Structures are given as C-alpha cells and as structure tokens.
Amino acid sequence: LTDERWMEVSKRALVSEDHLQGTDYFNTLGQRIERRASANHREPPWFFIDPLDQVVRGVGPGQLGMVAAPPKRGKSLFLEWLAMVFPLQRIPVLYFTLEDPQTTVEDRLDSAFCHVPYHSLKDNSRKLAHRFERFRRRARSGLRIYDGTANGISIAQVEQIYLRERESGFDAQAIVIDYDQEISPSKRLPSRI
C-alpha cells in the first residue's frame, strides 16, 4: 500500500457517503428472523465471573483473545478457569502450558472442579474422585492438556497438535496457551543487526 493509495482511500472514506446504506428497520423484521435462523455461529462463551460477564463477552469462534498483566497477577489461574468453564458450555479445549508444569495445572483444575483446597488434594482423594465424576458428567465436551514447559513449543507445533487431535475426533473450539515468553519460533531468521 503506497502513501498515495492510502491517501486516496482515506479521502474517499472521509468524504464519500455513497457507501452508507440505510435500512428500514420496521419493514425488515422477516429478514432479521431469517438471518438469525440461518446463522450457524455460536454466541461467545461466558466467563462465569459475574462482574466480568456484565461488562465483556468472551472471545468467540474465529477470534483471538489475549490476557496481559504484570507478573504474578493471576493470568495462569484465569486461563485455567477458562479451560474449566468452556467445556461446561460445549466448547472443547486444547490447553498448552508453557509456564507451569502439567502436574500443577492438573492440581489447580482438580481443586477448582471439585471444590477441594489445593493443599488438601492428597488428603481428600475419595471426595475428589466423587466430585470429579460429578463434574465430568456435567462437562459437555473435553479438555486436552499439553505440557511444553521442558522444551517450549512453536505455533507450528500447536497447529500440528490441533490437526492431529481433530483427525482423531477431538475438534477443539478453543486453544488456550499459557506462556511466559516461551513460544519458540519454528525457524530462526538471521539477525538484521
């Protein structure tokens, strides 16, 4: 896009009104009903965090969401929460952990799913098993966890895993990647310096 082309597009957008089309709202109800009936899109998922759900809708299909905050502010816990509530909404999840080991993620999820304190999981295995089974029956889809803490992972590898899972019958509708500067490039390019 050249500077001249950019200026032409900008000027046309600012002065041209012929691209605006009015709609007769009161006479198009049938079209709106038909549009909604034929749409096969899903509503964005809920976070199941009331104050947040009142202000923001979740990231919908085909969209990219990002959670950013200073260190030690709960980003990993929030992503684990999403990995927990999405399956309750029929959204299968591929979860990649690149920051915390898979055992830590599993323990946090067990604690949250089963309402057993994190540090009491070992002492409450019967309660955990009973509550986990109840939660598993309520979950409408699956959750697959991949641990990339040892060697990191590239976006190309995430894509390969997604495709492999889809071929095996697990069609993830959400991909959650918890990383702290650990996504590695699939190919290193020469430095420009």
Keywords:
about 190 residues; mainly alpha; three-stranded parallel β-sheet; 7 helices; 3 strands; about 45% helix; extended
What can you tell me about this protein's structure?
- By secondary structure, the chain is mainly α.
- Helix content is 43%, strand content 8%.
- It contains seven helices and three strands.
- The chain has a three-stranded parallel β-sheet, with helices on one face.
- Helix 4 packs across helix 5 and helix 5 crosses helix 6.
- The radius of gyration is 22 Å and the shape is extended.
- The protein starts with a helix and ends in a 15-residue tail after the last strand.
- The model has no long low-confidence stretch (mean pLDDT 85).
Give average pLDDT, whole number: 85
Helix content, binned percent? 40-55%
Largest beta-sheet characterization: 3 strands, parallel
Q: How many beta-strand segments?
A: 3
Instruction: Classify the secondary structure makeup into a structural class.
Output: mainly alpha
Shape: extended
From the alpha carbons, calculate the radius of gyration and give it in angstroms. 22 Å
Strand order of the largest sheet: 2-1-3
Assess the beta-strand content as a share of residues. Answer: 5-15%
Order of helices and strands: HHHHEHHEHE
Number of helices: 7
Runs with pLDDT <50, length 5+?
Answer: none
Distance between the termini: 26 Å
